[in-house]
Amino acid sequence: VQLQASEGGMVQAGGSLRLSCAASGNIISMNDMGWYRQAPGKQRELVALISRGGSTNYADSVKDRFTISRDNAKNTVYLQMNSLKPEDTAVYYCKVSHEGWSYWGQGTLVTVSS
């Protein structure tokens, strides 16, 4: 399974950005898909998770601002980020679970300026 994430970018505080991550390869059934992030000097943390059935889970810091969604037909997961804050600045990684294995995307930098 290979993951291809969209490019991040730089936005001003209060702005929006949408990330996507498409999985390809010999895919049978994708289970959980999610987004993590790692800010400079900090550990990688969960941002949002979505099950195959559509159940979602969010970090408290992004609730009501970020929305995770997926398109099972395209094996793609999305992260809509609104009301961005400087503290959202980080490298964002997608992660998918498939047939008992976990796969990580290459990471994409999101920078939020104040």
Proportion in helices:
under 10%
How would you characterize the largest beta sheet?
7 strands, mixed
Using only C-alpha atoms, the radius of gyration works out to 13 Å
Apparent shape: globular
The strand count comes to 11
Q: Helix count, per DSSP?
A: 0
Order of helices and strands: EEEEEEEEEEE
Helical/strand content category: mainly beta
The poorly predicted ranges are none
- End-to-end Cα distance, whole Å, is 37 Å
Global mean pLDDT: 95
What amount of the residues lies in strands? over 45%
Descriptive notes:
- By secondary structure, the protein is an all-beta fold.
- Helix content is 0%, strand content 57%.
- It is built from no helices and eleven strands.
- It has strands at residues 2-5, 9-12, 17-24, 30-38, 45-50, 56-58, 66-71, 76-81, 90-98, 101-104, 108-113.
- Strands 2, 4, 5, 6, 9, 10 and 11 form a seven-stranded mixed sheet that branches.
- A hairpin with a 5-residue loop joins strand 5 (45-50) and strand 6 (56-58).
- It is globular.
- 30% of the residues are buried.
- The mean pLDDT is 95.
